[in-house]
Amino acid sequence: QIFNQHNAEALSLEQAFHRMAQMEPNLDHDVSWFLLPSYWAKMVVALISFLCFANSYDGDFVFDDSEAIINNKDLRAETPLGDLWYHDFWGSKLSSNTSHKSYRPLTVLTFRINYLLAGGFYPVGFHVINIILHCTISVLMIDVFSILLGGLQFSNKGRRLNLAPKSSLLAALLFAVHPVHTECVAGIVGRADLLCALFFLLSFLGYCKAFRENKEGHTFSVLWVLVSVILGAIAMLCKEQGITILGLNAVFDALVINKINLLELVQKLLHKDKSLENVGQLRKGLLFRITLLMSGGASILYIRWRIMGTGPPAFTEVDNPASFADSLFVRAINYNYYYSLNAWLLLCPWWLCFDWSMGCIPLIKSVSDWRIIALAALWFCLIGLICQALCSEDSHKRRILTLGLGFLIIPFLPASNLFFRVGFVIAERVIYLPSIGYCILFTYGFSLLSKQAKKKKILAVAVLGILLINVMRCALRSSQWRSEEQLFRSALSVCPLNAKVHYNVGKNLADKGNQSAAIKYYREAVRLNPKYVHAMNNLGNILKERNELHEAEELLSLAVQIQPDFAAAWMNLGIVQNSLRRFEEAEQSYWTAIKHRKKYPDCYYNLGRLYADLNRHIDALNAWRNATVLKPEHSLAWNNMIILLDNTGNLAQAEAVGREALELIPNDHSLMFSLANVLGKSQKYKESEALFLKAIKANPNAASYHGNLAVLYHRWGNLDLAKKHYEVSLKLDPMAPGTKENYNLLRRKLEQLQKRGG
User: Could you give the number of structural domains in the chain?
Assistant: First the structure.
């Protein structure tokens, strides 16, 4: 009985404390929205965020996934784990001139774990983790928004109170269903943004956990401040934006914990007001905490700088045209226009594109361009919000607007081009964190409208409609991210002037064997960007395969003229020149390619083919040997070495090379076939037969395999088996060279034997 009475007293004290806290200005007083218990609110947010992106779970690897995952050697077990700390996001050494300097080792580590657990490159596991991460982040947003919108208040037991349950639920739902997040969730490389956001939020919540309220004011835990700094460092190791949480924690501390009025503080400083002495006493803890945050941030940046080196990432003009403009005015006006477009994507996320570079957004070059209106509107809104955030007499309003603007602007700063050049014009993925600020401002705006509206239910239905439309848009957009074909084609209507969009559509068609359609898109890419060397290279390749050699040569020559160190274009130009029987020029092109890319096995392979055509056998063998040294699994180079040695009568050497090749590539049926031919000529019939049969098992529809096995049996004297395989070969390919003649010879021999037997 005494125990129950004690509990009841404690509960009534906590309820009284909660009621006192709610007497302060509160968004929920005006918001006409659903009030759910905390557990149910989180369940609803998790379920809705899952429904938005669930249909992306079985999508393919698309766009940047190929480079960041499939072609990234850091995911494979043979790469030492320690290398992840010295490589960029794409697997290149940070010290390399070609590195993008995107240092995200923890994100790459999660990709590696995905790869090892799945036993290979199976995208389902990668997509499922992304969906789970977004659902987790959306649920955490309820706690974050309850602090940002309702303030940081604790009960007498030290339990944090949610003073804005309705507002925080609405803001979390807005975040969970925002279509601009699709790239982060449905695109696997968006894992970097998701992991960064997760630790970003945990750092913020950890910083809030450092404070407890008592009768003497705020005390704080140094341990939790340090934990927050460590979580911020982890966020940065997932993606660069993570470091900005330390700045936001400082802003939160000043505005919410210390309740500083910035405008009043500036006025007192200017007038040397004596009351600042009392303010200074209040903020001794603040200065110490900000010192901890700044020291932690500086240490993190220094360590990263030491690992990354001083060289900036190498970007080209097509990646970010405004940053290459000579005029400071043109750069400034276009950067601001890009900001307005990012803001528009938050307000109206209907036109979404996987890539906004390469002419998608033409540069503004004069004030007469009508698009100036967009950046004027942006700054009109921002200045209005900043004035309200600084000058309003309502402390509650000042706090919410300042935090909303802080979370909108500060995480966006690394992508703003203000401190360094970035490699994109607009990237939807970088708006993932800034959208937190948008959700705060939207929710606050909704509360103001609700306060003025007479029919609040109509306003609530309108917001429900926006949420529903966003859910549908997320589902549609995530389905477009399921395959490259859908993703690239969806961009044609959004960015028809983007050469990269046409290039990617063309590449996708070419990979599927539709060369005629691919040519059309490659030509359009070159028309939109006459310096697009990769489009020229791919178009030249297709024309080369279609035997349109002269146009292919023109395109490839132009590509290397525009970009003299483009090794792939030099190699392809060499192949075309070889086909045109201009052997000296072809040899020179191959060596130029190797000069610009020293480890280029395919170029050595093609150089070997050129030397073989010129009967320079030693040079050909050396070139192919170089190809296999650089790429031990280069089957074509091994095969050509075996065949050349076989044709020149060097059977022992051919056999040695064949055995060496099969040790490295034991399941390559073409190597089995070539070595079987050599062994047959060396009269090692049993071993030759075993290899032929193994090759046929791997590729049963190869007429030449059956035909050559028949020749082996013919020589060996196994005439019935020879007859059987000749017939299979002719059935598969009635025009197989030599097979019909050999079969007729065998039949005559069998007839003679039958006559003698008769």
Answer: 2
